[in-house]
């Protein structure tokens, strides 16, 4: 069953909170996205920004595992949430 838009947003907000609490990873996220710490709070309600949080998280399997383990989330949920937030839910390329 596909993830709902509300569940995708909630998961992405949890990922953002996890990133903010990670002193080593937050600067990497800010540097790679060009976002400032103020942007984190201002843009937290934007689907596009939340999708970028999940895009970043999915750059490294270890980050996905760490986030999912910390929040008892199935490992496939971030990719499903990212697809929903990016508007790609239900799109199949094969």
How would you describe what is shown here?
By secondary structure, the chain is mainly alpha-helical. It is built from 6 helices and no strands. It has helices spanning 5-20, 25-33, 37-42, 47-57, 61-71, 77-85. It is globular, with a radius of gyration of 13 Å. The two termini are 19 Å apart.
Topology, element by element:
Layout (H helix, E strand, L loop, with lengths): L4 H16 L4 H9 L3 H6 L4 H11 L3 H11 L5 H9 L9
Helix pairs in contact: 1-4, 1-6, 4-6
Concise synopsis of the structure shown:
The chain is an all-alpha fold.
Q: Proportion of β residues? A: under 5%
Mean pLDDT: 90
Helix content: 55-70%
Strand tally = 0
- The end-to-end distance, rounded to whole angstroms, is 19 Å
Order of helices and strands: HHHHHH
Shape: globular
List keywords for this structure.
6 helices, mainly alpha, single chain, 66% helix, 94 residues, disordered C terminus
């Amino acid at each position: 069953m596909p993830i709902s838009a509300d569940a995708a947003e909630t998961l992405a907000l949890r990922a953002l909170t996890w990133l903010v609490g990670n002193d080593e990873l937050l600067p990497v996220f800010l540097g790679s996205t060009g976002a400032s710490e103020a942007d984190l709070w201002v843009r937290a309600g934007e689907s596009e920004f939340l999708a970028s949080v999940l895009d970043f998280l999915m750059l490294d399997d270890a980050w996905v595992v760490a986030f999912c383990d910390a929040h008892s989330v199935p490992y496939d949920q971030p990719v499903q949430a990212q697809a929903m937030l990016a508007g790609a839910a239900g799109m199949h390329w094969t």
